Amino acid sequence: MVAIEDIIALHGVLPDIESLEEINQLKLGSEKWLQIYWGDFSEEPGKYLCLNLLSGRPIFGRDYFFKIMKRFNKKVLIRSHQPDIPQSIFNNRCLTIFTSSACARERVIAIADSEKEIKNNRDLKIKII
To answer: Which residue ranges form the domains of the chain, and what is each CATH number?
Structure first.
């Protein structure tokens, strides 16, 4: 996980914790660690929606995303998991990109201009590599 200014980046979904410092204390394989590693999103309303029975991945909804982003005072989440979701969801505040050639999508990076205010992922430069 990386957090700078208004942006946070990780693999899956932000866990339901009180502070970002708690991430470093999560035990490997714990429920909250699995959220970071395997968590998926859905544009559906709600917080925790279900456990995908085929993949074993927890699925979180729109309400969860906005609650957790408000808690951590972040504007944009950049993640690299879940190839079957649109690249931009939740009012352009969640950007899903891939850096692995194993995914069907092109390999993509996001670049933030440190001198520019970041309100959503449209304020980032998206580059195909």
So the answer is: 2-128 (3.60.21.10)
